[in-house]
Amino acid sequence: MNDLTDITFIKRITIGNTNPSNPKDDTEIEKQIQLLNRCLSEHPKGIIIGQEKDFQVIRIGEHQVIQQSTTYHIGFKRKPTWLTD
């Protein structure tokens, strides 16, 4: 169990589509997943301290499209030097 009082930096990483007018392709989503995995595996290792789930139902003509995204809050004891905003 990690102590949350040690957390000094939080990075939010969103995986999925958040803008209906600009959908992300599979390569962009894969880059998001790679960043999440890097945050959880490389030094200094982060931990997931929170999560947001969002979805939107969009009607395009007769069709309905559902866009989903999950935002992870990754806490670090200090900001990783390899992490750029």
Automatic annotation (TrEMBL):
The lineage of its organism: Bacteria, Bacillati, Bacillota, Bacilli, Bacillales. This is Uncharacterized protein.
